[in-house]
Amino acid sequence: MKKIGLIGGMSWESTVTYYQVINETIKKTLGDLHSAEIIIYSIDFDTVAKAQELDDWNTCADIILKAALNLEKAGAHFILIGANTMHKVIPQIKDKLSVPILHIAEATIDRLKKDHIQTVALLGTKYTMCQDFYKQKLIDAQLTVLIPEEIDTVNSIIYDELCKGIFLQSSKEKLIAIIRRLKDKGAQGVILGCTELGLLVKQENLNIPVYDTTLIHGEEAALQSLEA
After folding, report:
1. In this structure, are residues 152 and 173 in contact, taking their beta carbons and an 8 Å threshold?
2. Which residues of the chain have pLDDT under 50?
3. Among 31, 52, 82, 94, whose CB has the most other CB atoms within 10 angstroms?
4. CATH number at residue 171
């Protein structure tokens, strides 16, 4: 079994989901008492969030690179960044590592293609929804991407509530309404492109396919850890 290096803490609430999903996938695949070999480097998210707000992505890259190098030294065979937004810094750090990074958007695209989704709604932080580092990967995969008008609302729910462990029914209803409006505009599925969104919105809340990137990323990591 390959060792998974997980950069967590962005936020730690979703890192819990990663740990659970990876181990559940290993157990389902191998049976008995099997569990994953995971090395977790959990960073201080407050430092990252403040750097993001200042558009200081070099500091973000330095933080992620330090974590990744430590995981590499600890024996990780590949790296998992447990946050959609922080995949923005991959181009800055990947050549400084000797182990690969499993990209969350690429894993999600594979699932969308498998399900023959052509038009997809994307919810996430304002960085993920507005900047090209994530969205462009979807477009390059010949997907039509729909972004909600309520960018600030979604971003606020993520940073001011979910990342702080606050789960409000009113916010859940807002997100569901936003997704339904995007469905009316042609979305065949919705990407929960922030690892915290799946803590509030579930497949059973919607009649449109939900692609929770945390679950997809974690499952793919577990399966890759079993590849020869």
Report:
1. no
2. none
3. 82
4. 3.40.50.1860
pLDDT of residue 69: 98
SS3 105: helix
- Report the C-alpha gap between 178 and 202 in whole angstroms: 14
Domain carrying residue 147? 104-213
In this structure, the number of other CB atoms found within 10 A of the CB of residue 58 comes to 11
Q: Summarize the chain as % helix, strand, coil (round to 5).
A: 55, 15, 30
Give the DSSP H/E element, type plus range, for residue 50. helix 45-53
* Residues 191/213, Cβ–Cβ less than 8 Å: yes
pLDDT score for 157: 97
pLDDT of residue 87: 96
Residues in the chain, total = 228
Check residue 62 and give its pLDDT.
97
Residue 174, Cβ neighbours under 10 Å: how many? 17
Q: Same structural domain for residues 111 and 93? A: no
DSSP 141-209: TT-EEE--S-HHHHHHIIIIIGGGT---HHHHHHHHHHHHHHHHTT-SEEEE-STTGGGT--GGG-SS-
